[in-house]
Amino acid sequence: MRIGIADGRITAVTTDAPAQHGDQLLPGVVLPGFANAHSHAFHRALRGRTHADGGTFWTWRERMYALAATLTPDTYLDLARAAFAEMVLAGVTAVGEFHYLHHAPGGTSYDDPNVMAEALRTAAHDAGLRITLLDTAYLAGGIRQPLVGPQRRFGDADVDTWAARVDALRPDATLTVGAAIHSVRAVPRDAIRRIAEHAAGRPLHVHVSEQRAENDACHAAYGATPTGVLSAAGALGPRTTAVHAVHLTPEDVALLGSTGTGVCLCPSTERDLGDGLAPGAVLRDAGARLSVGSDQHVRTDLLAEAADVEMNERVARQSRGVLDPAALVELLTHGGHTTLGDPTGGRIAVGSPADLVAVRTDTPRTAGVDPAQLVLVAGSADVDTVVCGGVVRVHGGRHVLGDVGALLGAAVDAVWRGTDA
What we know:
The termini are far apart. A hairpin with a 2-residue loop joins strand 14 (391-395) and strand 15. This protein is an alpha/beta fold. It has 15 helices and 15 strands. The chain is globular and about 65 Å long.
Protein backbone atom coordinates (compact mmCIF):
# COMPACT_ATOMS: atom_id res chain seq x y z
CA MET A 1 0.00 0.00 0.00
CA ARG A 2 1.20 3.48 -0.84
CA ILE A 3 -0.02 6.44 1.22
CA GLY A 4 0.21 9.95 -0.20
CA ILE A 5 0.59 12.85 2.21
CA ALA A 6 0.40 16.63 1.83
CA ASP A 7 -0.01 19.40 4.39
CA GLY A 8 -0.23 16.92 7.23
CA ARG A 9 -3.15 14.92 5.82
CA ILE A 10 -3.57 11.78 3.78
CA THR A 11 -4.26 12.61 0.13
CA ALA A 12 -4.23 9.14 -1.44
CA VAL A 13 -4.31 5.48 -0.41
CA THR A 14 -3.37 3.10 -3.21
CA THR A 15 -3.23 -0.69 -2.92
CA ASP A 16 -0.84 -2.91 -4.89
CA ALA A 17 1.33 0.14 -5.53
CA PRO A 18 5.11 -0.21 -5.84
CA ALA A 19 7.33 2.14 -3.88
CA GLN A 20 8.64 5.15 -5.73
CA HIS A 21 11.93 7.00 -5.45
CA GLY A 22 11.98 9.02 -2.23
CA ASP A 23 9.21 7.08 -0.49
CA GLN A 24 9.57 6.27 3.21
CA LEU A 25 9.27 2.52 3.72
CA LEU A 26 7.42 1.48 6.87
CA PRO A 27 8.29 -1.94 8.34
CA GLY A 28 5.74 -4.38 9.74
CA VAL A 29 2.03 -3.67 10.20
CA VAL A 30 1.02 -0.04 9.79
CA LEU A 31 -1.83 1.27 11.95
CA PRO A 32 -3.34 4.74 12.35
CA GLY A 33 -1.76 6.85 15.07
CA PHE A 34 -2.84 5.97 18.59
CA ALA A 35 -4.79 8.34 20.83
CA ASN A 36 -3.94 8.52 24.52
CA ALA A 37 -7.30 9.81 25.69
CA HIS A 38 -6.43 10.40 29.34
CA SER A 39 -3.10 11.68 30.64
CA HIS A 40 -1.77 13.54 33.66
CA ALA A 41 1.74 14.31 32.39
CA PHE A 42 3.22 15.25 35.75
CA HIS A 43 2.19 11.88 37.23
CA ARG A 44 4.99 10.32 35.15
CA ALA A 45 7.35 11.30 37.98
CA LEU A 46 5.44 8.95 40.31
CA ARG A 47 6.36 5.80 38.38
CA GLY A 48 8.17 3.35 40.63
CA ARG A 49 7.94 5.66 43.67
CA THR A 50 4.58 4.79 45.26
CA HIS A 51 4.74 1.04 45.85
CA ALA A 52 6.88 0.51 48.94
CA ASP A 53 4.19 0.82 51.61
CA GLY A 54 1.15 -0.59 49.84
CA GLY A 55 -1.86 1.52 50.69
CA THR A 56 -4.82 2.63 48.61
CA PHE A 57 -5.79 5.17 45.98
CA TRP A 58 -6.14 7.70 48.77
CA THR A 59 -2.63 7.16 50.16
CA TRP A 60 -1.25 7.26 46.60
CA ARG A 61 -3.00 10.61 46.22
CA GLU A 62 -0.99 12.09 49.10
CA ARG A 63 2.22 11.19 47.27
CA MET A 64 0.83 12.86 44.16
CA TYR A 65 0.01 15.98 46.15
CA ALA A 66 3.60 16.14 47.44
CA LEU A 67 4.84 16.12 43.87
CA ALA A 68 2.30 18.65 42.65
CA ALA A 69 3.30 21.09 45.38
CA THR A 70 6.79 21.60 43.96
CA LEU A 71 6.41 21.88 40.19
CA THR A 72 7.33 25.13 38.43
CA PRO A 73 6.52 26.13 34.85
CA ASP A 74 10.07 25.17 33.86
CA THR A 75 10.16 21.78 35.56
CA TYR A 76 6.63 21.08 34.32
CA LEU A 77 7.73 21.81 30.75
CA ASP A 78 10.74 19.50 30.97
CA LEU A 79 8.75 16.67 32.55
CA ALA A 80 5.83 16.97 30.14
CA ARG A 81 8.14 17.13 27.10
CA ALA A 82 9.85 13.92 28.14
CA ALA A 83 6.56 12.21 29.07
CA PHE A 84 5.03 13.16 25.71
CA ALA A 85 8.14 11.96 23.87
CA GLU A 86 7.76 8.59 25.62
CA MET A 87 4.18 8.49 24.35
CA VAL A 88 5.28 9.14 20.78
CA LEU A 89 7.80 6.31 21.07
CA ALA A 90 4.80 4.13 21.95
CA GLY A 91 2.87 5.20 18.83
CA VAL A 92 0.77 8.01 20.32
CA THR A 93 0.05 10.89 17.94
CA ALA A 94 -2.64 12.66 20.00
CA VAL A 95 -3.04 13.06 23.75
CA GLY A 96 -5.85 14.27 25.96
CA GLU A 97 -4.13 16.09 28.80
CA PHE A 98 -6.42 16.34 31.84
CA HIS A 99 -4.86 19.57 33.09
CA TYR A 100 -5.53 20.83 36.60
CA LEU A 101 -2.12 22.08 37.77
CA HIS A 102 -3.06 25.70 37.10
CA HIS A 103 -1.64 28.00 39.73
CA ALA A 104 1.42 28.71 41.86
CA PRO A 105 1.80 27.09 45.30
CA GLY A 106 -0.88 28.32 47.65
CA GLY A 107 -3.26 28.93 44.77
CA THR A 108 -1.89 32.30 43.69
CA SER A 109 -2.33 32.99 40.00
CA TYR A 110 0.75 33.36 37.88
CA ASP A 111 1.16 36.65 35.99
CA ASP A 112 0.08 34.62 32.97
CA PRO A 113 -2.84 32.55 34.34
CA ASN A 114 -2.21 29.93 31.64
CA VAL A 115 1.56 29.62 31.97
CA MET A 116 1.27 25.96 32.99
CA ALA A 117 -1.04 25.24 30.06
CA GLU A 118 1.41 26.95 27.74
CA ALA A 119 4.16 24.67 29.09
CA LEU A 120 2.03 21.72 27.98
CA ARG A 121 1.50 23.27 24.55
CA THR A 122 5.25 23.72 24.09
CA ALA A 123 5.99 20.23 25.42
CA ALA A 124 3.57 18.60 22.96
CA HIS A 125 4.95 20.63 20.06
CA ASP A 126 8.52 19.67 20.92
CA ALA A 127 7.65 15.99 21.33
CA GLY A 128 5.75 15.98 18.04
CA LEU A 129 2.16 15.12 18.87
CA ARG A 130 -1.19 16.90 18.97
CA ILE A 131 -2.74 17.78 22.31
CA THR A 132 -6.32 18.27 23.40
CA LEU A 133 -5.92 20.40 26.49
CA LEU A 134 -8.72 19.36 28.82
CA ASP A 135 -8.62 22.35 31.13
CA THR A 136 -10.08 21.08 34.36
CA ALA A 137 -12.52 22.79 36.71
CA TYR A 138 -11.47 21.92 40.25
CA LEU A 139 -13.45 23.95 42.79
CA ALA A 140 -13.61 21.89 46.00
CA GLY A 141 -11.44 19.56 48.06
CA GLY A 142 -14.30 17.08 48.33
CA ILE A 143 -18.07 17.32 48.40
CA ARG A 144 -18.82 20.44 50.49
CA GLN A 145 -15.18 20.63 51.56
CA PRO A 146 -12.74 23.48 50.92
CA LEU A 147 -9.56 23.18 48.90
CA VAL A 148 -6.60 22.45 51.17
CA GLY A 149 -2.84 22.21 50.79
CA PRO A 150 -1.62 21.44 47.26
CA GLN A 151 -5.24 21.32 46.04
CA ARG A 152 -5.16 25.12 46.06
CA ARG A 153 -2.88 24.93 43.01
CA PHE A 154 -5.65 23.10 41.17
CA GLY A 155 -8.65 25.21 42.09
CA ASP A 156 -10.27 28.30 40.68
CA ALA A 157 -12.41 30.58 42.80
CA ASP A 158 -15.58 29.82 40.88
CA VAL A 159 -16.94 28.80 37.49
CA ASP A 160 -16.54 32.29 36.03
CA THR A 161 -12.85 32.43 36.94
CA TRP A 162 -12.29 29.00 35.40
CA ALA A 163 -14.18 29.98 32.25
CA ALA A 164 -12.26 33.23 31.80
CA ARG A 165 -8.94 31.38 32.00
CA VAL A 166 -10.09 28.72 29.51
CA ASP A 167 -11.39 31.36 27.11
CA ALA A 168 -7.96 33.00 27.10
CA LEU A 169 -6.40 29.84 25.64
CA ARG A 170 -5.94 29.94 21.89
CA PRO A 171 -6.10 26.79 19.78
CA ASP A 172 -3.58 26.23 17.02
CA ALA A 173 -2.74 23.56 14.46
CA THR A 174 -1.67 21.11 17.16
CA LEU A 175 -3.70 22.21 20.21
CA THR A 176 -7.42 21.77 20.73
CA VAL A 177 -8.98 23.50 23.72
CA GLY A 178 -11.25 21.16 25.64
CA ALA A 179 -12.69 21.14 29.13
CA ALA A 180 -13.01 18.83 32.10
CA ILE A 181 -14.98 18.49 35.28
CA HIS A 182 -12.51 16.89 37.63
CA SER A 183 -15.17 14.81 39.41
CA VAL A 184 -18.36 15.18 41.41
CA ARG A 185 -16.04 15.33 44.44
CA ALA A 186 -14.21 18.40 43.18
CA VAL A 187 -17.03 20.28 41.42
CA PRO A 188 -20.27 21.12 43.28
CA ARG A 189 -23.46 19.86 41.71
CA ASP A 190 -24.79 23.35 40.95
CA ALA A 191 -21.59 24.20 39.04
CA ILE A 192 -21.60 21.12 36.82
CA ARG A 193 -24.39 22.36 34.55
CA ARG A 194 -22.72 25.74 34.05
CA ILE A 195 -19.39 24.14 33.15
CA ALA A 196 -21.07 21.75 30.71
CA GLU A 197 -22.91 24.64 29.08
CA HIS A 198 -19.72 26.68 28.78
CA ALA A 199 -17.95 23.69 27.22
CA ALA A 200 -20.62 23.22 24.55
CA GLY A 201 -19.02 22.20 21.27
CA ARG A 202 -15.77 21.14 22.94
CA PRO A 203 -14.63 17.78 24.27
CA LEU A 204 -15.67 17.49 27.92
CA HIS A 205 -14.09 14.85 30.16
CA VAL A 206 -14.81 13.86 33.77
CA HIS A 207 -13.53 11.28 36.26
CA VAL A 208 -16.48 9.02 37.09
CA SER A 209 -16.83 6.34 39.78
CA GLU A 210 -13.14 5.45 39.96
CA GLN A 211 -13.47 4.49 43.63
CA ARG A 212 -16.34 3.12 45.70
CA ALA A 213 -15.71 5.86 48.28
CA GLU A 214 -16.52 8.43 45.60
CA ASN A 215 -19.87 6.75 44.97
CA ASP A 216 -20.61 6.54 48.69
CA ALA A 217 -19.89 10.23 49.24
CA CYS A 218 -21.99 11.18 46.22
CA HIS A 219 -24.93 9.07 47.44
CA ALA A 220 -24.68 10.59 50.91
CA ALA A 221 -24.67 14.14 49.60
CA TYR A 222 -27.00 13.94 46.60
CA GLY A 223 -28.87 10.66 46.80
CA ALA A 224 -27.55 9.65 43.38
CA THR A 225 -24.55 8.09 41.66
CA PRO A 226 -21.95 10.33 40.01
CA THR A 227 -23.38 9.33 36.62
CA GLY A 228 -26.86 10.27 37.83
CA VAL A 229 -25.64 13.67 39.04
CA LEU A 230 -23.95 14.34 35.70
CA SER A 231 -27.04 13.26 33.79
CA ALA A 232 -29.33 15.52 35.80
CA ALA A 233 -26.98 18.43 35.12
CA GLY A 234 -27.06 17.83 31.37
CA ALA A 235 -23.36 16.94 31.30
CA LEU A 236 -23.62 13.65 29.39
CA GLY A 237 -23.63 13.29 25.60
CA PRO A 238 -21.49 12.45 22.56
CA ARG A 239 -18.87 15.12 23.33
CA THR A 240 -18.51 13.94 26.94
CA THR A 241 -16.14 11.19 28.07
CA ALA A 242 -16.41 9.47 31.44
CA VAL A 243 -12.95 8.38 32.58
CA HIS A 244 -12.60 5.07 34.47
CA ALA A 245 -16.33 4.32 35.03
CA VAL A 246 -15.39 1.34 37.18
CA HIS A 247 -18.13 1.14 39.80
CA LEU A 248 -21.33 1.56 37.79
CA THR A 249 -24.88 0.45 38.38
CA PRO A 250 -26.93 -0.98 35.49
CA GLU A 251 -28.77 2.35 35.43
CA ASP A 252 -25.43 4.18 35.05
CA VAL A 253 -24.48 1.95 32.12
CA ALA A 254 -27.83 2.63 30.45
CA LEU A 255 -27.46 6.40 30.93
CA LEU A 256 -23.93 6.47 29.48
CA GLY A 257 -24.91 4.28 26.55
CA SER A 258 -28.21 5.96 25.68
CA THR A 259 -26.60 9.42 25.63
CA GLY A 260 -23.69 8.26 23.47
CA THR A 261 -21.23 9.33 26.13
CA GLY A 262 -17.69 8.07 25.64
CA VAL A 263 -15.84 6.03 28.24
CA CYS A 264 -12.05 6.07 28.58
CA LEU A 265 -10.58 2.99 30.22
CA CYS A 266 -7.13 3.09 31.85
CA PRO A 267 -6.40 -0.55 32.76
CA SER A 268 -2.86 -0.14 34.07
CA THR A 269 -3.84 2.68 36.41
CA GLU A 270 -7.05 0.99 37.49
CA ARG A 271 -5.06 -2.08 38.51
CA ASP A 272 -2.12 -0.18 40.01
CA LEU A 273 -4.39 1.90 42.26
CA GLY A 274 -6.68 -0.98 43.13
CA ASP A 275 -9.66 0.71 41.50
CA GLY A 276 -11.24 -2.40 40.01
CA LEU A 277 -12.25 -3.62 36.56
CA ALA A 278 -14.42 -1.40 34.38
CA PRO A 279 -17.26 -3.10 32.44
CA GLY A 280 -15.90 -2.15 29.02
CA ALA A 281 -17.81 -4.60 26.85
CA VAL A 282 -21.10 -3.92 28.64
CA LEU A 283 -20.60 -0.19 28.10
CA ARG A 284 -19.78 -0.68 24.43
CA ASP A 285 -22.83 -2.87 23.92
CA ALA A 286 -24.97 -0.21 25.61
CA GLY A 287 -23.79 2.41 23.09
CA ALA A 288 -20.79 4.06 24.75
CA ARG A 289 -17.75 4.85 22.60
CA LEU A 290 -14.61 3.34 24.14
CA SER A 291 -11.08 4.72 24.25
CA VAL A 292 -7.97 4.11 26.35
CA GLY A 293 -5.55 6.24 28.32
CA SER A 294 -2.34 5.84 30.28
CA ASP A 295 -3.56 8.20 33.07
CA GLN A 296 -0.85 8.21 35.76
CA HIS A 297 1.74 6.58 33.44
CA VAL A 298 2.59 3.62 35.59
CA ARG A 299 3.45 2.42 32.10
CA THR A 300 3.26 4.19 28.75
CA ASP A 301 2.22 1.47 26.35
CA LEU A 302 -1.07 2.09 24.58
CA LEU A 303 -0.99 -1.21 22.71
CA ALA A 304 -0.83 -2.94 26.08
CA GLU A 305 -3.64 -0.77 27.46
CA ALA A 306 -5.87 -1.79 24.55
CA ALA A 307 -5.02 -5.47 24.96
CA ASP A 308 -5.69 -5.26 28.68
CA VAL A 309 -9.23 -4.05 28.07
CA GLU A 310 -9.84 -7.50 26.60
CA MET A 311 -7.76 -9.30 29.24
CA ASN A 312 -9.77 -7.66 32.01
CA GLU A 313 -12.94 -8.87 30.32
CA ARG A 314 -11.54 -12.41 30.23
CA VAL A 315 -10.80 -12.28 33.96
CA ALA A 316 -14.24 -10.90 34.77
CA ARG A 317 -16.20 -13.24 32.47
CA GLN A 318 -13.92 -16.28 32.39
CA SER A 319 -14.25 -16.26 28.62
CA ARG A 320 -12.00 -15.29 25.71
CA GLY A 321 -12.63 -13.02 22.76
CA VAL A 322 -15.10 -10.65 24.41
CA LEU A 323 -13.64 -7.77 22.39
CA ASP A 324 -12.02 -8.92 19.15
CA PRO A 325 -8.76 -7.45 17.80
CA ALA A 326 -10.58 -5.12 15.39
CA ALA A 327 -12.56 -3.64 18.29
CA LEU A 328 -9.34 -3.09 20.24
CA VAL A 329 -7.72 -1.29 17.31
CA GLU A 330 -10.86 0.85 17.02
CA LEU A 331 -10.76 2.03 20.64
CA LEU A 332 -7.00 2.61 20.38
CA THR A 333 -7.32 4.73 17.24
CA HIS A 334 -10.58 6.17 15.92
CA GLY A 335 -12.42 5.90 19.23
CA GLY A 336 -9.71 7.84 21.00
CA HIS A 337 -9.31 10.54 18.37
CA THR A 338 -13.07 11.08 18.32
CA THR A 339 -13.02 11.38 22.10
CA LEU A 340 -10.37 14.10 21.75
CA GLY A 341 -12.46 16.10 19.29
CA ASP A 342 -11.26 14.84 15.90
CA PRO A 343 -13.60 12.27 14.32
CA THR A 344 -11.42 12.30 11.18
CA GLY A 345 -8.49 10.87 13.16
CA GLY A 346 -7.51 7.25 13.66
CA ARG A 347 -8.13 6.22 10.07
CA ILE A 348 -5.86 5.48 7.12
CA ALA A 349 -8.13 7.26 4.68
CA VAL A 350 -8.10 10.28 2.41
CA GLY A 351 -8.67 13.41 4.47
CA SER A 352 -7.52 11.92 7.77
CA PRO A 353 -4.47 13.25 9.62
CA ALA A 354 -1.27 11.69 8.30
CA ASP A 355 -0.64 9.77 11.51
CA LEU A 356 0.91 6.32 11.06
CA VAL A 357 2.48 3.78 13.39
CA ALA A 358 4.61 0.95 12.02
CA VAL A 359 4.73 -2.04 14.39
CA ARG A 360 7.39 -4.64 13.64
CA THR A 361 6.40 -8.27 13.13
CA ASP A 362 9.92 -9.69 13.49
CA THR A 363 10.72 -9.04 17.15
CA PRO A 364 10.88 -11.77 19.81
CA ARG A 365 7.37 -10.76 20.88
CA THR A 366 5.76 -10.51 17.46
CA ALA A 367 7.57 -12.99 15.20
CA GLY A 368 5.13 -15.43 13.63
CA VAL A 369 1.93 -13.67 14.71
CA ASP A 370 -1.15 -13.27 12.55
CA PRO A 371 -1.02 -9.54 11.67
CA ALA A 372 -4.75 -9.26 12.38
CA GLN A 373 -4.08 -10.28 16.01
CA LEU A 374 -0.98 -8.13 16.52
CA VAL A 375 -2.74 -5.75 18.92
CA LEU A 376 -3.05 -8.55 21.48
CA VAL A 377 0.68 -9.32 21.67
CA ALA A 378 2.68 -6.26 20.55
CA GLY A 379 3.84 -3.46 22.82
CA SER A 380 5.61 -0.14 22.71
CA ALA A 381 9.01 -1.83 22.28
CA ASP A 382 7.81 -3.15 18.91
CA VAL A 383 6.99 0.30 17.50
CA ASP A 384 9.53 1.14 14.81
CA THR A 385 8.28 4.29 13.05
CA VAL A 386 5.81 6.98 14.05
CA VAL A 387 4.56 9.65 11.67
CA CYS A 388 2.47 12.52 13.05
CA GLY A 389 0.97 15.05 10.68
CA GLY A 390 3.18 13.72 7.90
CA VAL A 391 6.40 14.25 9.88
CA VAL A 392 8.51 11.30 11.01
CA ARG A 393 8.97 11.62 14.77
CA VAL A 394 10.28 8.12 15.52
CA HIS A 395 12.45 6.07 13.19
CA GLY A 396 14.02 2.74 14.04
CA GLY A 397 12.57 3.01 17.53
CA ARG A 398 14.40 6.29 18.24
CA HIS A 399 12.74 9.64 18.84
CA VAL A 400 14.04 12.71 17.01
CA LEU A 401 14.70 14.34 20.41
CA GLY A 402 17.30 11.66 21.13
CA ASP A 403 17.59 9.62 24.31
CA VAL A 404 14.13 9.86 25.86
CA GLY A 405 15.22 7.80 28.86
CA ALA A 406 17.86 10.39 29.67
CA LEU A 407 15.33 13.20 29.24
CA LEU A 408 12.93 11.47 31.61
CA GLY A 409 15.62 10.70 34.17
CA ALA A 410 16.78 14.30 34.32
CA ALA A 411 13.25 15.70 34.46
CA VAL A 412 12.05 13.29 37.16
CA ASP A 413 15.15 13.86 39.29
CA ALA A 414 14.68 17.62 39.02
CA VAL A 415 11.08 17.58 40.26
CA TRP A 416 11.77 15.24 43.19
CA ARG A 417 14.71 17.35 44.33
CA GLY A 418 12.11 19.98 45.17
CA THR A 419 10.29 17.71 47.62
CA ASP A 420 11.16 16.33 51.00
CA ALA A 421 10.29 12.80 49.86
